[in-house]
Amino acid sequence: MRIACLLAEGFEDAEFSKPMQALKDSHYKVTIIGIKKGEELTGEMGKEKATTEEAIDDVSADDFDALLIPGGYSPDKLRANDKVVNFVRRCFDQGKPIMAICHGPQLLLAADRYKGYRLTAWKTIQDDLSKAGAEVVDEEVVCEKNVITSRMPDDLPAFIDASIKILERTAA
Fold this sequence. Notes:
Blueprint: E1 2-6, H1 13-25, E2 29-34, E3 40-42, E4 49-51, E5 54-55, E6 66-69, H2 74-78, H3 82-93, E7 98-101, H4 106-110, E8 118-119, H5 123-132, E9 135-136, E10 141-144, E11 147-150, H6 156-171
Parallel strand pairs: 1-2, 1-6, 2-5, 6-7, 7-11, 8-9
Antiparallel strand pairs: 3-4, 10-11
């Protein structure tokens, strides 16, 4: 399975590095996609660095089987780009697994893909989702159809476990 990881400057370090490592350890191919190819990005805590492997202009949702959206400031920056939003919308509409943590569900809001879904996110994003009409709960991980959401770095073990399980079910 090929997994797209949407990333921009200021991502939450652990919300990127820990799921990435777990996915790689489970033998999934993860491609870091950003606004530009070859851009070096630094996490908001300065502990992690990542280099984009593909530019959003050069990929299609059809090329991937699942989507990972780490939190931090990254999703807010990415949602300003129409091509990123369309990529998320297409992944969602194709029923691909979408794994979004912390501020990651901001991209679901921008893509207008949250209605009828039970979701969680960082506290301030929970409020945004609720006002937009999503069913929001304050739980460490929520698995709803093809979407996995979590609130914060403390939720990473549950988020990673749920993400691996949905990918295993999808691959079967």
